[in-house]
Amino acid sequence: MNIVLFHSTYGLRPAVHAAADRLRAAGHEVWTPDLFEGRVFDSVEEGRTFQNELGKDEILKRAILAAAPYSERGLVYAGFSLGAATAQTLALGDEKARGLLLLHGTSDLAENASVDELPVQLHVAEPDPFESDDWLSAWYLRMGRAGADVEIYRYAGAGHLYTDPDLDDYDAEATEATWRTALGFLETL
């Protein structure tokens, strides 16, 4: 499977490279675009400040340009938090998308969003400060109306970015469960 994996608001940190290596070890080809051009951050606040300076349109433009050379192959779009939101936007706009793997985040959908049974898997903490239960319920319904085939996995007690071992949110058990499930999902595509 061809996968483009987008980083979180922290930037392209070691955890993203480790995730890409895990996916490659399972036989996938993976690209990890650096949407922040080398900038990494130690806190959500620093990352968000930089993200806001760049602007949503610039981040999306960089993501599109990074994925474009591979999109004809039929990509699985994946990402962490901000990267998940970016991956979702790209996947819903790419008729050749093979799947969508969301880790720790979602995004709003355009009113006219439409896909043909796009397989989607979301992994998120429970509770998650950035993905409330009400939001996730509404998101799930909107994704279904758009034509996506959605699975949601919740991890009680885990922090928001629980798959990053360098952050306080890290939860080893939830991380391993996430990757077991995600790798199984990718095998079905």
TrEMBL record:
Give a yes or no for keyword Secreted in this entry: no
Q: Where is the signal peptide?
A: none
Q: Which residues form the Dienelactone hydrolase domain?
A: 3-188
Under the heading InterPro entries, the entry gives: AB_hydrolase_fold, Dienelactn_hydro, Dienelactone_hydrolase-like
Name a Pfam family for this protein: DLH
User: What keywords sit in the KW lines?
Assistant: Hydrolase
Q: Which SUPFAM superfamilies match?
A: alpha/beta-Hydrolases
Which GO MF terms does the UniProt record name? hydrolase activity
| Keyword Hydrolase found | yes
Name of the molecule in the record: Dienelactone hydrolase family protein
Q: Which organism is it from?
A: Streptomyces atriruber
